[in-house]
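Appendix B. Chain record.
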Amino acid sequence: MTSAFQFISRRSPIVCTGGCVASNQPLATNIGLDILKKGGNAADAAVAVAAALNVTEPTSTGIGGDCFCLYYKAETKKVYGLNGSGRCPGTLSLEVLNQQGYDDDNPLPPTHAHNVTVPGAAAAWADTVSLFGSQELSLGEILQPAIELAEFGFPVSEVCAFQWNKTAHKLQAPNNMHGADLLINGQAPQHGQLFRNPSLANTFKELSKLGKEGFYEGQIAQAIVQVVRSNGGFLELSDLSSHVTEEVQPICTTYKGIKVWELPPNSQGITVLMALNMLENFCVKGMGHNSSDYIHILTEVIKRSVSDCQWYCADPAVYPVPTEDLLSKVYCATQAKHIDFQRASEGNKHGSPFEMGSDTVYLTVVDSHGNACSFINSNYMDFGTGLVPEGCGFTLQNRGHNFSLSPAHPNCLSPGKRPFHTIIPALATNAHTEDLLCSFGVMGGFMQPQGHVQVLLNMAEFGMNPQQAVDAPRFYVMYVKKEQKWHLYLEEGIPSYVEEDLKARGHVVHWPISGYDRCLFGRGQIITKGDWWRSHQILNNSKVWWAGSDPRGDGCAMGY
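Structure tokens predicted for this chain:
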């Protein structure tokens, strides 16, 4: 089946001067444009697209998961951040899990109800609109297109149909009493088949009518608690009613005149910034794009940044994450000096990074005023736990699976704590003028920071336009715990002689990764302000938006 997924088309970047939307589903992208044309701004449209994607791609995203937001306000040239991740139930602890036989050597199964953290998306959607929105449209007006999409149905797109079928077993599980709400006659919908989700439409109506309270209190909250507790979890109504979105100060670093913005821990965005700081110490462009030297150096940089992040990155309300020290140019230069140009490193200094991937949607929107919203929403692993609350039409995330069960780990599970989080949106601005350069992201678990680095370098070092930057073959580095080795995955399109050279340097290489397996490399979206990537000078004079959407997904960029 993997060979049926061919990359044989060519796309040009979208160019426009009004507003622009890039998402993983054309119907959702079009909804974002409609919101912009009705007077909404980038934040309003981003929430509308996120809701629409919950309808069209429930495998990856939804209101039962978490989301993060970066917002660039053109008027002030400032970047703002929202952390929409949820917390561990207040009565769940390591002691409880140990009594049930779970520990660092015997972790929870990924779909266990204990992995359900409070879903943060609903609150973050409402807060994105109230804090950054135009105030011209109500939350109800913003959600209405997604409500209609769920009520009247939509034809399922190709990649989504494949993922839906691959993980339908979660919905079909005997303990999942309402999993059938996301199936058709007990089966996953096929490519092009019309799917309706009236229960999800009703959930969105409650949010529209009552705001955040419509989700975190009342019948939806009760349904969430009921399905979690009936499957052995500890979530309580008080966990939901006490949930709040956190306004956070984004973190950043500069790379050759470009200021790159990410969200701080508990997000893994710090990984991107550490990697870029290390890469400043190498002549990246001179190595040649996707050459063996280039992939080797980036792989070694990623190993070090991932290892640091997956040890130190935790909920800063519980553990004092040394963010400033990790982002020190001096520290990162020292890290770079330890890289052997001819030999792959083995192991890692902090223990075992996670191996699991995830399913997520990333989207970005810009408006005619120059505002940009970089937005990401996720269930974590396909359908999360797969558990569907009665009458709600969405699955609950399994984000708690990212907690460590080692009491010595900064990211160890504890009551009310937020777990280490994979999802990361990004922005880039001119380091001198603070003008927007681009809003971008690459979804997909631990590929995300690696994708951010590769796609950004495609533009900044190799002059690719946004579409070329997401089209280019990628690579992925993953630590396999049972082998205590790093594995390097190369996408089809990277030459065989590069694979051979990397093997000779000691890398454990898998090549070529093709077909549907390309999902390993994530799916990205980019919108740039002007064509700054064409020049070594970061001028950003143009009033033209340029946009690209990843061919590994079903989506597209559109503008007006």
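Further analysis of this model is presented in Appendix C.
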